[in-house]
Description:
InterPro entries: APOBEC/CMP_deaminase_Zn-bd (IPR016192), CMP_dCMP_dom (IPR002125), Cytidine_deaminase-like (IPR016193), dCMP_deaminase (IPR016473), dCMP_deaminase-rel (IPR015517), Deoxycytidylate_deaminase_dom (IPR035105). One of its GO terms (biological process) is nucleotide biosynthetic process. Its cofactor is Zn(2+). Pfam families: dCMP_cyt_deam_1. Keywords: Hydrolase, Metal-binding, Nucleotide biosynthesis, Zinc. The protein has 4 helices and 5 strands; from the N terminus they run H-E-E-H-E-H-E-H-E. Helix 3 packs parallel to helix 4. The longest helix has 13 residues, at about 10-20. It has a single domain, classed as Cytidine Deaminase, domain 2 (3-Layer(aba) Sandwich). It starts with 8 loop residues before the first helix and ends in a 12-residue tail after the last strand. The chain is an alpha/beta fold.
Amino acid sequence: MKRQDYLSWDEYFMGIAHLSAGRSKDPGTQVGACIVSEENKILSVGYNGMPTGCSDDDMPWDREGDFLETKYPFVCHAELNAILNRSTGSLKNARIYVSLFPCNECAKAIIQSGIKEVIYGDDKYADTDGVKASKKMFNMAGVKLRKYENTNRVIKIEL
């Protein structure tokens, strides 16, 4: 008889998104994303961080201050990195698992890439104009939104 306590697809892919978030150097917010095909094959992963070639040690990580002294004009979000990191093929009809609800800029990239479903973890910025804009665009473009149903399963990885 096969084992019964294996990970569901949602647990597996959201787990990979959270594991990817662990690569972020951002001291305040770590976000991960995992893009999956209709056949449940991983197409790409990403996390929030500085663009390739820009040293994490030489870039600002502050959240407040003069705009150019903060992380905001520089950091690539997890969703955008996952979209840009795909090695080949289309993302049409794919789904994206992301640990934090996408901002309006990432929403545009998700829509333009053909992703048709967003499964998200935290929605802590739901009341911001950026997330309200994301939800409006997703709705208009027919992108399905689904809150990840936390199973509270503990997954331990020993390295």
